[in-house]
């Protein structure tokens, strides 16, 4: 039996991905990105500040960290609430001791329910990144485009109502997008998103609704992945972050251009008392490293965006 020659025809077969959102690019051959003040590595601390409704919605999927047992699930609900009552302030204090500012990825439900907390975050000079309305607002293909657009708008409006500033960055729940999400975020005027994890540096995406930067926030370096999923110790987590920084710093020195280290932490995970001493020491160690600078997502996007094609 002979196959029809058209069997092998595939219009998207080319080097790279099966879409036109960005060009495939080898990190080690592309033009280097340089950071302000001659920094070699920028450390980007992203804190996930989330509100979990006590009744979860599993459509299109159950958000990581959501309620697990028979409802009302007060055990998990209150452990998550620990993050917004206690853990977040410990993380902010650790950053404040070295003068570092973070990007706080926040559900708009947090802004509505805890406006004093949000004002404390803003007063500390930290950036607010939009992180959906609440942890029931997951995104996947199959969610109607108009519903997704409305959720994005409600998130931005809710945060702006409390802070007075419209967020410029977006992090989806579980970094999950539909085929429409990047275009809808560009349409909404967002400067960058954090969902695509395929690089160590920002890159520009071109959507049908306009351009948007992607700042890769690798989930492999998150406290949820290392501490909760892999069940490793806080000491091991911090050792891995030091190893990552050292590798990126040495790689930058050998190949030219800057690198970015993304630390994604969660108040109800890292903010527990038996983990904070290690985290505090990690932030202090990073602050002492020559060539390191802490930066928010907005600062990274501004610096990188001015240099990208």
Outline:
This protein is 39% helix and 13% strand. It has helices at residues 74-96, 108-113, 115-123, 145-163, 181-187, 223-229, 234-255, 267-270, 273-288, 297-305; strands at 41-49, 103-106, 127-130, 169-170, 192-193, 203-207, 210-214, 259-265, 292-294. The radius of gyration is 20 Å and the shape is globular.
Structure, explained:
There is one protein chain. This protein has ten helices and nine strands. With 309 residues, it is of the alpha/beta class. Strands 1, 2, 3, 8 and 9 form a five-stranded parallel beta sheet that branches. It has a four-stranded mixed beta sheet with strand order 4-5-7-6. Strand 6 and strand 7 form a beta hairpin. The chain is globular, with a radius of gyration of 20 Å. The model has no long low-confidence stretch (mean pLDDT 95).
Report the structural category: alpha/beta
| Largest beta-sheet characterization | 5 strands, parallel
**Rg from C-alpha positions?**
20 Å
Task: Give the overall shape.
Answer: globular
Strand content: 5-15%
Q: Kindly state the number of beta strands.
A: 9
User: If you average the pLDDT, what whole number results?
Assistant: 95
Helix content: 25-40%
H-E order = EHEHHEHEHEEEHHEHHEH
What is the quaternary state of this protein?
Answer: single chain
Number of helices: 10
Contiguous runs where pLDDT drops below 50 for at least 5 residues: none
- State the distance separating the first and last CA atoms: 49 Å
Task: Please render the helix and strand layout as text.
Elements: E1 41-49, H1 74-96, E2 103-106, H2 108-113, H3 115-123, E3 127-130, H4 145-163, E4 169-170, H5 181-187, E5 192-193, E6 203-207, E7 210-214, H6 223-229, H7 234-255, E8 259-265, H8 267-270, H9 273-288, E9 292-294, H10 297-305
Parallel strand pairs: 1-2, 1-8, 1-9, 2-3, 4-5, 5-7
Antiparallel strand pairs: 6-7
Helix pairs in contact: 1-9, 7-9
């Amino acid at each position: 039996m002979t196959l029809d020659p058209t069997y092998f025809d595939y219009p998207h077969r080319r080097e790279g991905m099966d879409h036109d959102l960005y060009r495939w690019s080898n990190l080690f051959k592309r033009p280097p990105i340089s950071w302000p003040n001659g920094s070699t590595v920028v450390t980007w601390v992203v804190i996930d500040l989330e509100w979990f409704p006590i009744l979860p919605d599993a459509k299109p999927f159950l958000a990581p960290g959501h309620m697990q047992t028979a409802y009302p699930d007060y055990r998990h609900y209150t452990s998550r609430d620990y993050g917004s009552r206690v853990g977040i302030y410990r993380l902010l204090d650790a950053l404040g001791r070295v003068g570092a500012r973070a990007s706080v990825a926040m559900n708009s439900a947090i802004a509505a329910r805890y406006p004093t907390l949000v004002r404390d975050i803003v007063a500390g000079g930290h950036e607010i990144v939009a992180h959906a309305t609440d942890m029931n607002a997951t995104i996947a293909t199959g969610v109607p485009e108009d519903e997704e657009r409305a959720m994005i708008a409600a998130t931005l409006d809710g945060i702006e109502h409390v802070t007075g500033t419209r967020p410029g960055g977006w992090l989806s729940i579980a970094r999950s997008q539909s085929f429409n999400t990047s275009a809808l975020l560009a349409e909404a005027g967002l400067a960058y998103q954090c969902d695509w994890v395929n690089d160590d540096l920002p890159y520009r995406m071109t959507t049908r609704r306009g351009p948007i930067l992607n700042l890769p926030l690798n989930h492999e370096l998150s406290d949820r992945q290392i501490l909760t999923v892999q069940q490793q110790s806080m000491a091991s987590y911090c050792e891995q972050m030091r190893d990552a920084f050292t590798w990126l710093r040495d790689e930058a020195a050998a190949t030219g251009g800057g690198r970015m280290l993304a630390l994604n932490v969660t108040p109800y995970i890292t903010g527990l008392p038996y983990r904070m001493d290690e985290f505090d020491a990690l932030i202090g160690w990073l602050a002492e490293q020559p060539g390191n600078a802490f930066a928010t997502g907005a600062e990274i996007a501004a610096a990188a965006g001015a240099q990208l094609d």
